[in-house]
Amino acid sequence: MSFLEEEFDFIITTDRCLMTNHHGKEFLGFLGTGPAIGIPEKAWKWLACPKMKTDELGRPREAPYGMRKIEAALIDAGYKAAIIDPDYIGKYLPHAKALMLSHHDYFAFGPPSSTWWGITKKEPVNYKSFQELIHKPEIKQAKQRGMKIIAGGPSVWQWLWRTDMIEEVEVDTLVDGEADTYIVKIAEMIMNNEPLPKYVYIGAEEAPSVDQIPEIKGASVNGLIEIMRGCARSCRFCSVTLRPTRYYPLEKIERELQVNVKNGVRHGVIHSDDVLFYGAVGIYPRPEPLIKLHKLVKKYYKTIAWSHASLAAIRYSEEKYGLISKITEIVYEDGHQNYLGVEVGIETGSSRLAKEIMPAKSAPYKVDEYPETVEEAFKIMHDHNIIPAGTMIVGLPEETEDDVYKTIELVDNLRSYRSILVPMFFVPMGYFKNKDWFTKVKLNEAHIELYKKVFWHDVYWAEDILNKFYLKSPVYMPVRWTLKLFLRIAKKQMKKVEAQLEGYLRK
Questions:
Q1: CA 53 to CA 151: how far, in whole Å?
Q2: CA 213, CA 361: separation in Å to the nearest integer?
Q3: Rounded to whole angstroms, how far apart are CA atoms 125 and 28?
Q4: What span, in angstroms and rounded, lies between the C-alpha atoms of 289 and 293?
């Protein structure tokens, strides 16, 4: 089938930084949130976001999971819709009724991107990549003939900070929230030539039920499979806590696993804002649903990772049930993997600040014990070959210099545990969405010391991870070589980086 033989009313796309599988290693995608450092930008982009394989119609072999949900909703409703690789959209835009955009970080305002940008003063790769997409002349031409542009996804809030871009791109509608069902209404309005709302917010009351959430039709990037929505922690800086908690039944999860496997994807990511909350009672993990879940996923996938897990849940699960031991035994027993990656939110080493912004983050442990909970969870992960990327928030509205030094103390205490630590500038989301951004004006000596500590922690453990666990297959040799080159360059350049960081104090 050729391009001329197929038309789609609704084209769904994003830029190259998202329309990629990052060499099958999700963590490499974080490099796309920064500028090229130490190596040419072309090599940096190849490392972070290589071009995705497509079929003869320009449909990617794998696509971001959230976009797959939108595609599925439109197809289920009877519309001709497809996710199209950004290099191929020009073939379809002359006939499309709407171009639907999605992104995790439209204008690089997200925590990783804004941190990179703030420190280096260089535009992140993902920012440049999205700008390249939206300034394609074929989009402007299609818009002039009447095509609609709809923007959604987890970072749609960023358009509200860039209203100039709304006008420049001529975005018709911003859809903020879980759009699984509402996107069908938007499609109906477009097909009926009805006026579109400029901004739609889908709150908790309008959020789709589990039965209303469509099932993906094509493979998701790196086999990512959603198991639930919502989070019970209620952290004030997070927008996820504003959503109701819903668990996918195992049958629904299995059908999406089958879609990925059918399309040749046998390695995947279990996705939730806290994987260990699957089937939980409040904030208390339960062994039975988690063991059943992991046995099911390993039935289909050779290797798995967790998208996110909370440190308190890791500690509680192991201390109460020996659950981390049981899960990792399931994951490792077939010999296809010997480690499990996960992102964990540390946020702060200050009990005082934790009490202010995330009082339930440590539950069922006392919030005054939060640093101890972090250390215990890291020890458990280290002992079970779970490799965390631990994020921290720098510049929270209530943060004091003493809070930062408490975080530095925590970093020192985590030195013995295999991990990558990622301190990121505060971005106003969730309860804090109307607060000020953290800027370089507020960067102090404590912050500089924190970044120094984290850098050397990360370099040490990155080398260990590369040597013992990560990218071991011969097929990944070029990627391994590039990463090792980057680490060597980074160590040599650290004095310049330290001087640059300290320079902020004098500006």
A1: 24
A2: 28
A3: 13
A4: 6
| Residue 338, amino acid | N
> Per-residue pLDDT tens for 136-185?
999 999 999 999 999 999 999 999 999 999 999 999 999 999 999 999 99
Q: Do domains 3-206 and 224-506 have the same CATH topology?
A: no
Pairing mode of beta strands 228-229, 420-425: unpaired
Architecture per CATH, 224-506: Alpha-Beta Horseshoe (3.80)
AA identity, residue 321: Y
pTM given for the model? 0.89
269: which DSSP letter? E
Q: Between 494 and 468, name the one with better pLDDT.
A: 468
Residues 371, 350: Cα–Cα separation, whole Å: 7
Q: In angstroms, how far apart are the furthest CA atoms of the chain?
A: 65
pLDDT of amino acid 162: 92
Q: How many Å apart are CA 501 and CA 488, to the nearest integer?
A: 20
Residue ranges covered by each domain of the chain:
3-206, 224-506
Give dist(CA 86, CA 59) in Å, integer.
Answer: 9
Q: What is the CATH number of domain 3-206?
A: 3.40.50
Residue 47 and residue 64: Cα distance in Å, rounded? 18
Q: Indicate if the pLDDT at residue 258 is higher than 70.
A: yes
Of 349, 361, 362, which is closest to residue 396 (Cα–Cα)? 349
Q: Is the pLDDT of residue 66 over 90?
A: yes
d(CA 52, CA 403): 43
Q: What is the mean pLDDT of the chain?
A: 89
